[in-house]
Amino acid sequence: MRERRGIILFTHIRRAGGTVLEDYVLKPYVKSTKRAAHLCKEGELARFYRMGPNQRKRHAAELSGKALLWRHCPYGVHDLLPAPRESHVYITMLRSPLERMLSWFAYCNKYSPNKCHAGKVRCRGRMQTGCRCS
What does pTM read for this prediction? Predict the structure, then answer.
C-alpha cells in the first residue's frame, strides 16, 4: 500500500456537523496513516500572522509530519507548515444558517441557559425572554 502524505486542515464550525465528520472520517483516516494529529486549541494559532520567526519555527516543527490539524484552526495556518510545504487540503462542514442558529440556541439552552444571552423574542404572539417557546 502506498504511504499517504500531506495534511488535512479541518476547521470546525460549531453546530454544523463537524463532530460527526471528525469521529467517522477524520480520526479513522489519521489512524490508518499511523501519523499523529494536532488539535488546535481555540485561539492558539488564530494570530499566526503576527508570530515572530522563532514562534513560527517552533510551530512548524510541532506540525511536521502530522496527518491532521483539526478543530479551531484558522484559514491560512498552512503558512506554518514546514518547508518544503507539505501538500494540504482544507475541509469544513457547512449547514443552513437558520438550522445552525436553531441548533445553537437549543444547545445553549440545554447546556448553559444562563449564558444564552437571548433577549426578548416574539413567541406565539407574546414577548418572552429566553431561547425556548413555552
Answer: 0.68
Rounded distance, CA 86 to CA 11, Å? 18
Helix (H) or strand (E) holding 55: helix 53-63
From first to last of its 134 residues, the chain has per-residue pLDDT tens of 455 578 899 988 888 888 888 999 999 999 998 899 988 877 777 677 788 889 888 888 888 888 888 888 888 888 888 766 678 889 988 888 888 888 888 888 788 766 666 556 666 776 665 555 55
Cα-only R_g, the chain? 19
Question: What amino acid is encoded at 4 in this protein?
Answer: R
List the beta strands (DSSP E) in the chain: 7-11, 37-40, 68-71, 88-92, 120-123, 126-129
Pairing of strands 120-123, 126-129: antiparallel
Contact 62, 39 (CB under 8 A): no
Query: What is the strand order of the sheet 37-40 is part of?
Result: 37-40, 68-71, 7-11, 88-92
What are residue 89's phi and psi, to 5 degrees?
-145, 140
Q: Which amino acid is at 72?
A: H
Count CB neighbours of 42 within 10 A: 10
